[in-house]
Amino acid sequence: MTIQADKETIVVENFIKGQRVESISQSAKENPANPNEIVGYFPVTTKEQAAEAIAAAAEAFTVWKQSAIDERITRMRKAIEKIRAAENDIVQLLSREHGKPLYDAHGEMYVALMWMEYACDQAKSVLQEEVKEHETGKTIISHDPIGVVAAISPWNYPIALSTIKIAPALLAGNTIVLKPSPFAPLAATKVAEIIAGEFPAGVINVVHGESDVGVELTSNPLVAKIAFTGGTETAKHIMKAASETIKHMTLELGGNDAAIFLEGFDVNDERAMRRIVVSNFLTAGQICMIAKRVYVHRSIYDAFVDKYIEAANRWIRIGDPFDPNTTVGPVNNLKQKQYVEGLVEDARKRGAKVIPLGQILDQKQIEEGYYLQPTLVLDCDYRDPIVVEEQFGPTVPILPFDDEEQVIALHNESIYGLTSSVWGREEDAIRVARRLEAGTTMINTAAVQGLDVRFPFGGVKQSGVGREYGEEGILTYTETHVINVPKALDLPYIPE
Q1: Which controlled-vocabulary keywords does the entry list (predicted)?
Q2: Active site residue: 97, 252, 390, 471, which one?
Q3: 252 given a catalytic annotation
Q4: pLDDT tens per residue across span 184-239
């Protein structure tokens, strides 16, 4: 296959100490909807360049950590304004390199900007020094910056999951080295450069590359904290690399998120059925917090499946991400396409019923790009790979359950615990939700439809360590420093 670059090809470089730094070679990023088209090029960063970026961040930290919180907020707000001014161009670039439809790319920008604005609004109060006067003296509690942050972002929400790290890290007084995913490197780099333009040189640096660069970011002794969003297996290697210098870590990892539909759920609620369909297939199913397995009480199972198929066929329209009629685009890369195809084929061989969903808008384009028609998988076993593994693509199994104890056990036996959702009468749903092992449980909605950046987000078990968003998502980039000023210096139980 001959790949042709088109006239709108974008080229990004490493960004170190306020300057674009060229690399010896470049990698091409294709358009998932049309792999013959090169969207842009990004650098093959060397390990030495990564070390240079870390050193630049460490040097900048000595000054930036002393900056006033008002200055940090003012600079971040100016960056937000510039991102808003460039939003349409960024969204189109994101859609071309990632494959997500334009409305979905705008949605990602909405979440990213909403979080950045919230972080600016809350930073001063969250990071404010506390002084506590008490009978034994005075205690000062401050939230100090940690140092250099190595931020590694994924390809599924490259802008939102980069800014979720950049904004709080910088507002807390840290410096940062960002490594976007090679599967979606362009738009994230553009956004990072816009932010960097409002901050002193070296406060924000951007590198690219493969595992050797990742090893440098996670093992270099100048790095004080790692903020990583990605797969659980990769996180295990990161924890090992970071252990030599005991780095701070925030890890938001994989999830096999379950949606549970209780006996009292109304299958005739069309809006609710649309919400679960969107929660399964938004971004072609490539969201960490999307509902990836659906459990339905046996008493409503048959009716639920019928109504689900109706809702899916109404909402799902597979096509060109730039077509306003498209709701589901291609998956991001060939490797992911093949992985999801393998899970579906394995389920079929095990005796499952695979039902294609939605309307294909352009069959020729579907055949040329990294497209997968969304599928519903029925009659599979609770232990089949398509149920217990994270598909991260446009397919979902629906399984019946008989009682609450059974479905709670099925939910909790997973090694993951990122998000979950329970659907039905509110009091019943909350009762079940309290027994689920998950970082977040949503009631009568799921995925980004239930996301609120004002509150912490993260996983339990092998879905992660720490929390992002909310006040906790700001404080995670700080060290708590306690200064005690006692009145009585002689303790009564120590003899003279």
Answers
A1: Coiled coil, Oxidoreductase
A2: 252
A3: yes
A4: 999 999 999 999 999 999 999 999 988 899 999 999 999 999 999 999 999 999 99
